Amino acid sequence: MTLAVEGLRVSYPGHVAVDGVDLQVGAGQVVAVVGPNGCGKSTLLRSVARLHRPDSGRVLAAGADVWRLRPRQAAHRIALLPQSPLAPEAVTVTGLVRYGRHPHQGLFRQWSREDERVVRESMAATGVLGLADRRLDQLSGGQRQRAWVAMVLAQESPVLLLDEPTSALDLGHQVEVLNLVRTVADAGRTVVMVLHDLLSAARYADLLVAMRDGRIVAAGPPREVVNAGLVRELYDVEADILEAPSDGTPVVVTAR
């Protein structure tokens, strides 16, 4: 499913957080949104996910304006994993993933074998099927994050929004989650994620979107847009840009 953001302007009282953003994302693409703290990255995702109404502009999923859809209809198109999700106390991995089926339930549509199949397949895809009966608070950070991603997958929305999915994870768990994101996109879903790590963004994204002060200052394939000037503009630091020996991915080495 394609995702289009057109002229999006989003504000809080006394502050414009997203200012005139345009973005086009194709099905099966991974988009990484980067930039300094407070630049509007998370607000952009919240507005796309119908959690913060924009002042102007549109968000289109497969051509439909998501802000004109009913909440359940929008949830069938777009799913969001926020920065710090909260789970009910003592919930198991299976119990958490089952929450992803909520948009598919209704007065005349109760839990079914189809729901159970989707839950199990989502858990298998994220490698948490063996943790099905474990409580979330008993898992490592990487395991918990994979369980949350499984819940989002179970929603079966073709567009996934992930806000800092690797925050507070060690290097091994970061790679684990980002490889999973890549696999999800390769299966046809569209993924837009906010990342702080420019190296990870360059390695895993098809399209890198750099924001500062609520605006997009650069967008394109990482090899085309990641340079010393961009790093300076975003973070006010000097850096050398090297190429990874294995695949030419841009590697940012900051100056002392």
UniProtKB/TrEMBL annotation:
SUPFAM superfamilies: P-loop containing nucleoside triphosphate hydrolases (SSF52540). It is found in: Cell membrane. Residues 3-238 form the ABC transporter domain. Pfam families: ABC_tran. Keywords: ATP-binding, Cell membrane, Ion transport, Iron, Iron transport, Membrane, Nucleotide-binding, Transport. It is a peripheral membrane protein. GO terms for molecular function: ATP binding. Gene3D superfamilies: P-loop containing nucleotide triphosphate hydrolases (3.40.50.300). Its main location: membrane. This is ABC transporter ATP-binding protein. It comes from Allokutzneria oryzae.
